[in-house]
Amino acid sequence: MGERWIGISFAKQLVLFSVLSTASSVADAKANLTKITWAHAVNDAEFLTRVLASDTQFIEADISLGYLKDDMNKEREIPIMAHPPATESDISLETFLQRILQFNREANDPSKVKGVKLDFKSIGAFERSIDIIRASYDMTAFDTWINADILPGPVDNTATVPVDPTRFFTAARRLGKATLSIGWTTRWGPDFSEGLYTEAQVDAMIAAIRANGIDKVGNAITFPVRGGIVANSVNNMIRLFCALKDTNNVTFTIWSSANDAVNVEKLREFIFTTGLDRTYVDVPDDLHKKLHLDENAFSNTCKKTLQARCFE
């Protein structure tokens, strides 16, 4: 199964990603989630057009409350595609979802269908978006992720206020079986080497999920974890998986900002411990290359399966 690396310039953004060969199937991608490809901050109409025409498999976009650019008098605050501090966009959440839904329904090849990751920047934006998502998209037919940082996390991060978890889960239950992408706020960068997702932070996440009944309704959960931090947190991430594996389909989504300090060997250990079928890798192109995640590489890195680690 071949893989080629390409770079495409979209609007004012440079997106570098790996693209599955046309011979690859959806089943192949599910077996090795590290090969799923991403487009980020798809927050304007032209960028969305270009991404829909590309081979990208997952579209990530930010939702904030604000105004459309043609609303000159700022009379109607609505969920728009924008990352704070921006409060204007040329595309609303409603139009964004309707365009992707139309594209997916008309796709004549299942490998062309796009998944959607909606990243909510405030609880107000999320609560105002529930009815729009229900009316404008088909979450039962197409992969839909609802993303928010719901707990404070590493490293001594107090500057970013997380989305209120109770209100988040209350609203999320109205979206049925959408995948919940729930994480911690983080502080990291090129000068960091110490820090991890602590036992207390993992316990807080487990408690929030159980207190709000998400273990009982059984939504799939993916935990977005920052590459440089999760590389130091293998044992605590195993404990998180083991606590929820019997009630929820648990995966991890590794992300990283440009120039983040990352111990590549430790991060690779994490990926092969959790497994290629449970780990999405959404990182800058240069880091992805260093990880050497072709299917047969480092097959002996992890001696025990993730399930087996739960009984140690």
Automatic annotation (TrEMBL):
<feature type="domain" description="Menorin-like">
    <location>
        <begin position="32"/>
        <end position="287"/>
    </location>
</feature>
<keyword id="KW-0732">Signal</keyword>
<feature type="signal peptide">
    <location>
        <begin position="1"/>
        <end position="29"/>
    </location>
</feature>
<dbReference type="Pfam" id="PF10223">
    <property type="entry name" value="Menorin_N"/>
</dbReference>
<comment type="similarity">
    <text>Belongs to the menorin family.</text>
</comment>
<protein>
    <recommendedName>
        <fullName>Menorin-like domain-containing protein</fullName>
    </recommendedName>
</protein>
<dbReference type="InterPro" id="IPR019356">
    <property type="entry name" value="Menorin_dom"/>
</dbReference>
<dbReference type="GO" id="GO:0005615">
    <property type="term" value="C:extracellular space"/>
</dbReference>
